[in-house]
Design a protein that fits this description.
five-stranded antiparallel beta sheet
Length: 163
Amino acid sequence: MPQKTPQDNKKQPCDTSPAAVTRAARGVASTIPGARVGIQGGQTVINFRGSYNQTIGQLQRAGYYSGILAFNPIDHSGGYEFRTYGSPGFHLKVIYPDVEETQVGGRMGVRVSNQPAVATDLHIDCNNPVGSGISGTINHGIDFAREHTPWWLPYLIPGGVLH
C-alpha cells in the first residue's frame, strides 16, 4: 500500500536525483501487475500492461492519491495525475489515450485507443501537498510559486528587492 505511516511523515532527506525517481517509479510499478519502468525520450517512464482506463482504476485501487492536490495542468498537462502520500512524495502523470475521429453509421464519432498506458513526468516533490498536513500543502504552494515567478517580478512589488 503506498500510504505512509505517521513515522514516515517525519522530515526526511529529499533526494530528487534521477536514481531516486527511478527507485520511486519501481515502487509504483511493483504495485501494478505487469507494470515496468523504462526510458522514453531520455526520461524514466512507467509502462503499464493495461489500457488507460484499466491503469487509472488499478492506481486508484492501489491507494495512490488522484484528487485536486495531484492536479497541475501547468507542468503536467495531457494526463491524469497521481501522488504518493507524505513528504518527500512521488508525482506521476498517466498520459491520456489517443482519440481518433471515425464515422459510425453515417455519424461522426470517436474511438479511444486501447493501447497500454504510460506514466511520464515522474518526479519527487520535497514538499508534497498530500499526506504531509497543512504545512506540506503550504510549502508545496511556496515551491510552486517560487518555480513559476518570473525573475523580474520581485523588482516590481512594493517593498520588494528594489525598495
